[in-house]
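Form 12-C: Joint structure prediction
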Amino acid sequence: MNKNVLILVGVAALAGLAYIFVAGEKGGMQTAEGPKIGIILGYTGPIESLTPDMAMGAELAIAEANNSGNFALGEVTSVRADSTCIDSAAATAAAERLVTSDKVNAIMGADCSGVTTAILENVAVPNGVMMVSPSATSPALSTVADNDLFFRTAPSDARQGEVVAEILKDKGYKTAAMTYTNNDYGKGLADSIKSNFEANGGTITISTAHEDGKGDYGAEVAALAQAGGEILIVAGYLDQGGKGIIQASLDADAFNMFYLPDGMIGDALPAAIGAGLNGSIGDVPGTDSPGAAKFAEMATAGGFTAGPFAPESYDGAALILLAMQAANSTDSEVFKSKVMDVANAPGEKIFPGDLGKALKLISEGKDVDYVGASAVELVGAGESAGNYAEIEIKGGKNVTVGYR
Amino acid sequence: MTDILNAFVLLANFVLIPGLAYGSQLALGALGVTMVYSVLRFSNFAHGELMSFGAMFCVLITWGLQSAGISIAPLPTALLALPAAILLTIALALITDKLVFSYYRHQRSETVTYLIVSVGVMFFIGGLIRFIIGPDDRVFADGERFLLKARTFKDATGLSEGLAIKTSQGVTIMLAFMVVAALFWFLNRTKTGKSMRAYSDNEDLALLSGINPERVVMITWMITGALAALAGTLYGLDKSYKPFTYLSLLLPIFASAIVGGVGSPVGAIAGGYVIAFSELLVTFAYKKVISYLTFEQVVPEGLVQLLSTDYKIAVSFVILLIVLLIKPTGLFSGKTI
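Section 2 - Result
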């Protein structure tokens, strides 16, 4: 009996330790005169396959500003930290380190909505450090008490819900089953899709959460299959439960059409699933603005791919630098007020690769309208208005069939 | 009649076949845990990562074979890579024993010390795996994906419900059966197997009767390594290989071992199936089954689901609690082999 209890206690302890395990940190001390930007993203955890490209995107913008020689406040450095995407305590600790030990002037991050909220409330607001998240899309972040320190180059999921409902209506779907990843992002997006889809006259037969990080989603799919529907909306992550749900659905012949919101769009998914995914549809933040293509070229030259949220990460870092330049200060409380000015009209349009020019224009006292890689247009409390590319999977590839 | 058949096929497709495959994977994992527990007397938390390690090498070797154009289609190439992966996993198990566990064995450390040490080993192997293959999802299943496709089944029988059996599920159940039979033959019929049981039953008496403890320990680790590599590969083949999932797989594996009775191989196998089937049965939505078996009028509005699938992991813990409260030694009164 005693040993069995011991094992139980051990198993419980293990679950805790597992989180510590995934919360390992990267980065190191750097010494420089100029401002320092913390890049906090989930290098481990559910979206660990996306974050390296995102970080490279942000670092590309910093390198570009440095190389132009037009940045007035010294050499910009960056330091990475791990948000883990899911563990708020670990993310808060990592952000705390960035602010107190690395003394960053601003934060590019975090990635997932839950940890972003935690860092904002526990670290950024108390310490007066500005944050620009490239990928936190929870609607709750639109109204959070942020002391004007929070911006995001990703749109709120409230907007994505409208887009999803529109696409489904245009394709003629009347009933849909839905499953979402059990966190702020999944819940927020699912609620938004459900209300918009039902407002358009559709029916959601079941809306149920799934946990990430499991190997087997047979039971989840069994429940979804019993509810039925013409299409399965999978508001999850392509590296995680989302992929497992799709694979299990196809294996059991439960669904053969899928709707894939932004967290599910990536080259890895069609490659892993194969022909079964052909014909499925989805959306991802994206734009036909020339900035996206320019950024993709720069990314290739820089040795990484312009994957999901990498353009937004580039834009996030660029906005921080432009705002610093405009305020001629590295103090978040000062340059936070300049973000909206540099991001929106009026002014000369700035695309990726033009950061040097933009910095120069600002120093000459002229207006800039940062468009960047993701057609940045900040609305409301400082979040992207939201441009979505409509995706259809054809021949094992994500093909963009239109923009909304 | 057709309705009854439809209801049965529906359950078979979503509960019976997946449960058998998942249960077999859990059983193989739990067998490894139970072997270490009964012979070395500690709960080896590194077992999940050991499984992952074996599966990782199977993935790497499979890729090598695939690029060399070697295949055993329609069976997955991974089966060809499995023996080498098993050898490498055994090597890792023996090396960790030599470098880590043997020290504590000679110190005659307490169980709890072992437990913490094994957690350390778990983190080390986990890191090693990420270092070698990275954290990403790896797909290495090839060959014919299905033994029986849902569409084919529908066309052949004329039923409205389909039954799909994946090759990986068939392979899992077959291999698990063969390996378990071989293991029982080894433990009950061979001299080495008997000496292991003696050692596990009473260490001091076994030493007095001339059993070499180092040899028993070595063979235990070899069996554990082989079981781990096999379980890990089958799980990865059936689902997909991702280092992250093996950490969470540890929970149902330990639940299986404890429910069956720690230290009892029969218990580990029974526990594996108990956990797998209860997870599936409790979270299944029975609406369609009821609609097949009864009249239109009595079919309820809801999904008729006992528990939301979110609580799937809780199922194993509830069973665990019940077993610990009512029959702490587990279903098969464990402790010795």
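Section 3 - Comments
Chain B has one domain: 2-326. Chain B is about 75% helix and 0% strand.
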